[in-house]
Amino acid sequence: MLRVNGFTVLMADNIEGAIERAKQAAPDIILASISVCHPGELTDRLKADTELANVPSIVLVRDAQTDVLPPGYAAREALDELMGKIVSAPPRSVPVEASQGEVRGDLSQVPLIDLLQVLSMNRRTGVLSVVTAAGAGDVRIFEGEILDAVYRRLEGEKALYRLLGEREGSFAFMPGGNSSLRRVTVGTSMLVMEAMRQFDEVARLREELAPGGDALVANEPPASDASKLEREVIQLLQAPRSVDEVLDEVQFPDLEVLHVMRALALRGGLRRIPRAALVTRLASDDRLQMLRALVTRLGKEGFGGAPRIAIAALPHRLASLGGAILRIEDALPPLDASPSAPVPHQLATLRFGETVELSVIGLPMVGSFAPLWALALPSTGAVVRLDSTDCPEFDAACAAAEVPVLHAAALLGEVEEGDPAQVAALLRVTLETAAGS
User: CB 3.0-4.6 Å disulfide test: which of 30, 176, 344, 381 passes with 298?
Assistant: First the structure.
């Protein structure tokens, strides 16, 4: 059970074996069943050994009331209390006397978990600043209790757990000061226990969801009865994103987010996109020159700005396609965020050198917003339909604007709108078909 909760446990079946293994492994604490050692024997043996004299120990007893046990004893069935005693033991990697003033160090030598335990036991007040390769963060502490944490764009417990998982970087604890803002309400010892429990589980789920750093994209829109977290995850994954990107964007705890993503993956709601396909070129250098010439032909007389093509699809497919376009080299994001309503909007701008650009417009196929199609169609050189379903109203709007309509299925077959390589191919053949004739 201790292993399940994130502890590394070495086993021995007698005092002599435990002493020998402890000298080899340098443990943070020694637990011993009362059935293999007499009261006081373990403590006496440890004190007599100079190498192990400072290693704390706990004697485990069965079926005892923990509130009447003397110091140094614990009931093995009371797992939460036992873990609390384990994490509250002073870590040997941080000298307690060094914690009385300003503390600086390296994360590779002093884990933050150990440092927070020492600061908690000494009821320190101050700010623990951490700098890693991924960014900087702060942990605010008052009389040993953690009040708040920030790390990059994360806040509260989520930021704290991320910081505790960092193994490379530097830290500095500056005593003094106070904070009126408190976003962390759980006690320090419980936070440390939970962090240790989560480390292995988070790592396992990340590897299971996206081995090798693959991206994920949602296959379905959010269900009407989906939780707020599931809705947020699915909305983000309308465009291909890595697991890290999702965890950074969602403010729920990492472990909760990963469990939701795993549930989606198990029911077929997520699709993997290989890491190599996340960023792609629109075309080779020679072909780009030809496409550049074709783009200039798409400009419509009477309309300023860059030439345009439009892509018509259901809103969730457009969201996924918009994310894929932005993973094409020389694609620029729109200046404005995507609207919440299914109205025509810009997906991206493709640059063909310094002077030629192509604007890609998204047309959500939602019948109730059909009158707005007429605002975008007249300025576009061509429209590509991702969906093969008949829509006479849309065909009529395109005919009135004298805009040719192309069908992705006829151009390329079935298109995975979340795959940047396939979207790049769709854009190439659209330009060649619409402007090359």
Answer: 381
